[in-house]
Design goal:
With 499 residues, the chain is mainly beta. It folds into 5 domains: 41-138, Immunoglobulin-like, CATH 2.60.40; 150-224, Immunoglobulin-like (Sandwich); 233-329, Sandwich (Immunoglobulin-like); 334-416, Immunoglobulin-like (Sandwich); 421-498, Immunoglobulin-like, CATH 2.60.40.1080.
């Protein structure tokens, strides 16, 4: 048995030696392979960088890196960074790249864009390969305002009125409001003077991150015409216990009130009739005491802010007798004036008078003037209680004469503002070369309050010139005639010697 064991060991030893000899000779085994070393190169075009490795590189997927504009391109107060495709191979591109942003003027930003605007986002690898993408962040719309400007209504009075009142609150992102009137836009509240209806456009101005907002419809504001006219009341007896009241119509009013009381009463006037509508001008008052002296008048009103407001001057108080007679006194029947139409120069006067008809002498009411006078425009021509009319400035007006019960006649008055004569008041007749002489200060008009435009001329501008205000300047030695003419042709002239 021992012999068999030794034989087996010898065989195994020989096999082992033979195997080692075969390995040494390279039989039955592969040569070891060297490890792959990446040599990356990059190609950049627009928003894409492509990686390529030399040799037999095992990395074949994700060799394209692409950047994209943000998905949400409307301002919302958050950053708007560029995006990068998620399947880019990290072994090919690594993670050591830089992101930069510039604005529309190519100014580099400190961080990621937030505000509305135009931007360019760039990704750059350490190798210098660079991809870029441009994008616009749009302005966000303004929140619809909770408060809007309110239109204003006014009444014409010759002064400028604001047409809207601005809101107390502006929406977030709004920097102000502009108003458009007649095609012109302004930050200021629009105003107007003349009566009429006005359409005002409105736009809320957004800041750099919000767009403007404009309501769908314009605001409508109005300046109402001012009530105008002169009210003259006339009262006539109707039977024994009633009066018929008529009056001249005013413009731009909503109605009239009629007031009345007995002449002997010391109390307040009583409202006896209300008539609505500017064109209505008549009322009948019944239930009065017969054959009694009454006095009263009419006043116009408008409705403003839900309440009645009296406007214009009330009519002159008129006196009338119910039944037409009281203690021998009667109502006038008609009136005839001694003038029809009158033309006066400024400062001139004329006296109006008239004849009351329908009554005998001494039968008019004693406590009332036989005639009273009213001017439709006292700034043009005034009239006193005796009927003296004085012309005050150029224009036209109407003078009314009234009996005690309001029967009236009118005279049209035209005031001519032009002068009847013009002349120079002791003006010196010489001026030195280069010196000035103010002839305008020496010109006199008659009447003294005359209104006229003046035209000045020189017969020889080479000797003396004259300005539109009548200032003469000496140019060189000689003589020249300075003339001035008014709009109505009245003229004055003076010979000037230049020394």
């Amino acid at each position: 048995m021992m012999k068999d064991r030794m034989t087996c060991v010898a065989v195994l030893l020989l096999f082992s030696i033979a195997s080692m000899a075969g390995l040494a000779a390279g039989e039955g085994a592969s040569a070891p392979q060297p490890a792959h070393v990446h040599h990356w190169t990059y190609t950049a075009r627009g928003d894409t960088i492509t990686a390529q490795c030399e040799g037999d590189c095992p990395v074949t997927d994700g060799l394209v890196l692409r950047i994209f504009a943000p998905a949400d391109l409307t301002y919302d107060g958050r950053q708007k960074p560029i995006a990068i495709n998620g399947d880019a191979n990290s072994e090919a591109f690594g993670g050591d790249w830089s992101l930069t942003y510039t604005d529309g003027e190519n100014n580099r930003l400190e961080g990621v864009p937030v505000d509305a605007g135009t931007y360019t986002g760039s990704l750059e690898l350490p190798s210098g390969a660079k991809a870029s993408v441009s994008y616009d962040v749009a302005k966000a719309p303004l929140t619809r305002p909770e408060m809007f400007p309110e239109p204003l209504n006014a009444v014409y009075d010759g002064t400028a009125h604001a047409l809207v009142v601005a809101p107390d609150w502006l929406p977030e992102g709004c920097v102000g409001i502009q108003y458009g009137l007649n095609g012109d836009w302004s930050d200021a509240i629009p105003t107007a003077t003349e009566a009429g209806t006005y359409e005002i456009e409105v736009r809320y101005l957004g800041d750099g991150n919000h767009s403007d907002y404009a309501p769908d419809a314009p605001l409508i504001a109005a300046i109402e015409p001012s009530p105008a006219g002169i009210i003259l009341a006339t009262m006539t007896a109707r039977g024994t216990d009633a009066l018929n009241v008529t009056w001249t119509r005013a413009r731009y009013v909503d109605g009239y009130d009629v007031y009345l009381k007995k002449c002997a009463d010391k109390g307040r006037y009583q409202l006896v009739a209300t008539v609505e509508g500017q064109d209505s001008a008549e009322a009948t008052v019944t239930g009065l005491s017969p054959y009694t002296n009454y006095k009263g008048g009419v006043v116009a009103w408008v409705m403003r802010d839900g309440s009645k407001q009296y406007v214009l001057d009330k009519s002159p108080v008129v006196h009338v007798i119910t039944g037409g007679i009281c203690k021998g006194r009667v109502n006038p029947a008609s009136l005839k004036l001694n003038h029809a139409n009158v033309t006066l120069r400024i400062g001139r006067r004329v006296r109006l008078n008239g004849t009351v008809k329908g009554v005998l002498k001494g039968r008019l009411l004693k406590h009332v003037a036989r005639l009273r006078f009213v001017s439709s425009d006292p700034s043009v021509a005034s009239v006193d209680k005796k009927g003296n009319v004085e012309a005050l400035k150029g224009g036209t007006c109407v003078i009314y004469a009234l009996t005690n019960n309001g029967i009236w006649q009118s005279v049209n008055v035209t005031v001519d503002p032009s002068p009847e004569n013009i002349w120079f008041d002791h003006a010196k007749k010489y001026v030195d070369v280069g010196a000035q002489l103010n002839l305008g200060a020496r010109l006199r008009l008659w009447p003294g309050k005359s209104e006229t435009a003046l035209t000045w001329t020189s017969s020889n501008d080479g000797i003396a010139t004259v300005t539109d205000n009548g200032v003469v300047k000496g140019i060189k030695k000689g003589k020249a005639t300075i003339s001035v003419i008014a709009t109505n042709g009245k003229r004055a002239a003076i010979r000037i010697k230049v020394k």
